[in-house]
Amino acid sequence: MCSGERELPHNETRKVGLLSRIVRRIILWIYALKGWKIDGNLPKNLKKYVIAGAPHTSNWDFVFFAGATHSERVQPNFMGKHTLFQGMMRNFMLDMGGIPVDRTKKTNAVEQVAEEFAAREELALVIATEGTRSSDGKWRSGFYNIAQAAGVPIVPAYADNKNMIIGFGPPMTPTGNYGDDLLKLAEWFRSKIPDLERYKVLEAQAKAIIEGRNDI
To answer: Between the CA of residue 75 and those of 10, 50, 139, 188, what are the distances in Å?
Structure first.
């Protein structure tokens, strides 16, 4: 393979674009400048997993998670609308770890991403479990459905903005009982930042699902 070329996660062999190299260096520079620390480690014995990240309160979350995963020698991937992977942006989005999801296809997003897991030897998919920054703390079930469909474990990850810590927890294999598994995740997150209101909401959500008061 020629110098400057490598096997990319999206099964292409070509030079990584200049723009993506510059952006990645800027991200890592900002991460190092801010002095973030890492609590726990990503699993070294696993090649494929879903990283369930919360809370999602700022666009800077992407920068700090990218820096932390780089420190762990893992290239993170993320999902994006397929329209963002067109024209001049295509190679940049792929180089940055993007996985295009086409919601106009017959197969839904969960099936498309599960197929991507099956096609790759390695894939660490980062999902902001709350969906949006404006969330009250309740999680969407997409991360769980993807992990279950792909047959991969879930690695919880938290961001403590006050103390500038990114933390990773032990992998959890989905059992198919969403409520119970969500409660286990909620308890782990609360053990890290007990007083965070969003984590309290998450724990209440899990208990409501278990008790049959909520099916989301």
So the answer is: 12, 13, 24, 24
> pLDDT 10s per residue in the chain (216 long)?
333 444 444 445 557 889 999 999 999 999 999 999 999 999 999 999 999 999 998 888 889 999 999 999 999 999 999 999 999 899 999 999 999 999 888 779 999 999 999 999 999 999 999 988 888 999 999 999 999 999 999 999 999 999 999 999 999 999 999 999 999 999 999 999 999 999 999 999 999 999 988 766
Q: Where are the alpha helices (DSSP H) in 38-97?
A: 60-71, 89-95
Cα separation, 136 vs 189, whole angstroms: 15
Q: For the whole prediction, is pTM greater than 0.70? A: yes
Residue 212: which region, alpha, beta or left (left: phi > 0; alpha: psi -120 to 50)? Answer: left
Q: Residue written as tokens 């099936």?
A: 111
Return the structure tokens found at 145. Answer: 């459905």
